[in-house]
Write a structure and sequence with these properties.
The protein is 33% helix and 15% strand. The two termini are 35 Å apart. Helix 5 (146-152) packs across helix 7 (207-214) and helix 6 (172-195) crosses helix 7 (207-214). By secondary structure, the protein is of the alpha/beta class. The strands form four sheets. Strands 5-4-3-6-7-8 form a six-stranded parallel β-sheet, with helices on both faces. Strands 9-10-11 form a three-stranded antiparallel β-sheet, with helices on one face. Strands 1-2 form a two-stranded antiparallel sheet. The chain is elongated, with a radius of gyration of 24 Å. Mean pLDDT is 92; it is low at 1-15 and 386-393. The protein is built from 14 helices and 13 strands.
């Protein structure tokens, strides 16, 4: 088990938190988006994540005290373009299990901290690379963002109403689902391999690859003739009247997912259209069924409909805002959200019975832990490296 192993190539580890990855050391080369979130996931699970920030910050217009993707981490400032900068990173790499970087292909190599340099210093290192287009291919050197990556894989085209353009799902599908989560899966798999006596290796996590992979089931349905290659025409994309959202009398929304017959039967009974609803298997009458459901939902408020469906198996739930979600009774009972440092935020996930993760540090302020990391990781040269730390809030 990973949490039972507490030695890296550089010696004894000092974990900063609890969780199944306690004892695993991670170097994160500061970036934006999916890379920092992936490193946060590892930190939430107990890994000792040291973020190497650049002088002047990462360029995001956000107060670092509120950048929750940097929680549970420690930060040092190293200028990779200055004399000795790459050597300080390689000193950390020698004592690490994992490195994560999100530069364009070739940038890390030019800075002197690419896979060849890092693996020469630490042959068992897992070198995680996070990009949108991947390390190879015609677009590898082009700029891009989440929306473009999910656009070319067909994923974006599936989301939205049939009579409108595709709906942008924030940056959750590309950056975080197809990017961060796939990077973490790859890093943990490669770490298992290295810990089992194998060599270190490079993990090429590309958002385009992850976005395509997420739609594996849909591609199977498409090949079998069970999915139409257009928006709002299928069972799970809003085309089905008993799988979608409906407006209530107060301008709020309810989400309906009554796919199975027994759940649908309970849904139309509680909705009060049991005797008037068209047969659900008659696709030709789906528009009529949608209208009946919509008209009925508009007769009451979201709170009233929530009370109607509470305790049922109708698979109906209120659509809550980000601010409302932490107060939902189920999420409150599970502790899905937590408060730390005065900020309400999602708690670490998933959960472990023997080695639970936790939020034990606020977002790491750039450079605030240089002396601490130099001591814990036994890198004395780091403490003497010029930097202007920002004090922890």
């Amino acid at each position: 088990m990973l949490h039972q192993l507490c030695h890296s190539a550089g010696g004894l580890m000092t974990a900063t938190g609890t969780g199944p990855l306690a004892g695993v050391r991670v170097v994160e080369l500061a970036g934006i988006g999916p890379g920092p979130f992936a490193a946060m996931l590892l930190a939430d699970l107990g890994a000792d994540v040291v973020r190497v920030d650049r002088p002047g910050g990462a360029g995001l217009a956000i107060d670092p005290a509120y950048d929750l993707t940097n929680r549970n981490k420690r930060s040092v400032i190293i200028d990779l373009k200055a004399d000795g900068g790459p050597d300080r990173v390689l000193d950390l790499v020698q004592r690490a299990d994992v490195l994560i970087e999100g530069y364009r292909p070739g940038v890390a190599e030019r800075l002197g901290v690419g896979p060849t340099d890092c693996l020469a210093r630490n042959p068992r290192l897992v070198y995680g690379r996070m990009t949108g287009w991947g390390q190879q291919g015609p677009l590898a050197q082009r700029a891009g963002h989440d929306i473009a990556y999910i656009a070319i894989t067909g994923t974006l085209n599936m989301i939205g109403r049939p009579d409108e353009g595709p709906t942008v799902p924030a940056n959750l599908v590309g950056d975080y689902a197809a990017g961060s989560l796939y990077l973490v899966i790859g890093v943990l798999a490669a770490l298992q391999h290295a810990r089992g006596g194998g060599a270190g290796q490079v993990v090429d996590a590309a958002i385009v690859d992850g976005s395509a992979h997420l739609a594996t089931m849909i591609h199977g349905m498409l090949a079998a003739g069970g999915w139409q290659d257009r928006r709002g025409a299928n069972l799970l994309d809003g085309g089905c009247p008993f799988y979608g959202t409906y407006e209530t009398s107060d301008g709020q929304y309810m989400a309906v997912g009554s796919l199975e017959q027994q759940f649908y039967d309970e849904f139309i009974r509680l909705l009060g259209i049991e005797d008037a609803a068209p047969a659900r298997k008659d696709i030709a009458r789906w528009a009529e069924l949608r209208t009946a459901i919509a008209e009925r939902f508009r007769t009451r408020t979201r709170a009233e409909w929530t009370a109607v469906f509470e305790g049922s198996d109708a698979c109906v739930a209120p659509v809550l805002s980000l601010a409302e979600a932490p107060h939902h009774p189920h999420l409150a009972a599970r502790g899905t959200f937590t408060d730390h440092g005065g900020i309400t935020q999602p708690a670490p996930a998933p959960r472990f019975s023997a080695t639970p993760g936790s939020v034990h540090r606020p977002p790491a302020m750039p450079g605030a832990h240089t002396a601490e990391v130099a001591r814990d990781w036994d890198v004395p040269a780091l403490a003497g490296h010029p930097a202007t730390p920002v004090q922890e809030a």
